[in-house]
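Deliverable D4.2, example record:
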Amino acid sequence: MADVQDLETLINSRYPILYLETHEERRAEDLLEGIAHHLGLALFTWTATEGLRRQGQDKPVYQTKAPMEALGFIGTSDLPALYLLKDFHRYLEQPEVVRKLRDICGAYRKARRAILICSPVVLIPPEIEKDTVLFTLKLPTREELRALLREVETDPVVVRGATVLLNPAEEERVLQALAGLTRAEGRRAILEALADDRCLSIEDLPKLLNVKRRALGKDGVLEYYEGGETLDDVGGMERLKAWLAKRREAFTPEAKAFGLDPPKGLLLVGVQGCGKSLCCKAVARSWGLPLLQLDPGRLYDKYIGETERRLRQALQQAEAVAPVVLWVDELEKGFVAVGSAETDAGVSARVLGSFLGWLQDRRAAVFVAATSNNIQALPPELLRKGRFDEIFFVDLPRQAEREAILAIHLKKRGRDPARFELAALAGAGRGFSGAELEQAIVAALYSAFAGKRELTTELILEEMRQTVPLSTTMREEVEALRAWAKGRTVMAGSESGTP
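Output generated by the structure prediction step:
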């Protein structure tokens, strides 16, 4: 396990303080118990309710409940040991606690001892920064989750008489559903699936996904998206579809053996309402991958350090679910140019830097499908090659594309496109976005229903005549966007044909 090896290496490196960022307190303690045993060290745990307690002993150390009392014992003890302090971040704003830690660090730099602060919140005072190393406990690996499944049949505490009825292929699907959850969340998901019949089968997959959806949605930053959109629901964008088709099998073992790295992602910029978000959603289903939506507008929090933590956690969860498509809609809501965010104490700059670093260096198979309506608001660093594989410009649909879009929306509403004059409708819809073409059909349906009539070409044409498209009301902005995209991006659709 990488976490065990990395953590043991840091302990052996004689760091006086290790800061464990994790929600999984029990899992962290289990890891440290194994490391302490392997290194021949004692392990003490501290809580504000019990004080210091040595592993394997029933009674806590006398008078060590108060933080300063606990640190007093730790500072005077010459026992080779690890000291796990739970929720100790709450006391790191007290000057005397920080001073005592600094005093202890001097003696611990050359000793086989270390203090480990376990907390879901990172709060490291500057006075002890140089003596502290931050270690983020990763989410459970696929093999750890597999071991959790095995416990179902052997642990009597779980559910008496529980069984697992999964063939190898079904087990992989269940493990994918559990990926991105903590060990405790995974255990609860399994218990929920076992509640009805004490049997875990592929039929319980929706229950597991529902638990995952709730867990990912707690912060509101990351959401597990389940939709039925495919690339067949996207009208036009033939160049983009061809680009995606070449990469459909790029996440398979065969592609890896061939020497291919997984694609990093794409950025779709262009006119509002032309299908950028729809295309991002369709990629995941067409490739047979799960889809996670990252809402950049919900990253920011009023508490110091919380925004950065939210981003780290969201990206960590995405990597744990990999291979996955990560949909980031309207990038400009969360990642702005540094010069335009000078009033937020540097939070925007740190968030942007973290995201850029992750885009560039990530190793997990996370395909980022991002959109932007306001390219001028994005920092230039985001557009540099290496962040995304390609930047596509989604323009207003041309004649043939408008016909395809109209046919798709008519089919969705139970109408046969052959009964409509698509060429005439597409001609009347020149300058319309895909969303505006859809809305014309919806409005015509309301008119037909109210008048107890059938939906006809003329009814749709009438609605189009009453619509002023965005390309007219915001002509200058649209033309400026097109001028920027020329030579800088790849056209998602065809550049030939009637506009």
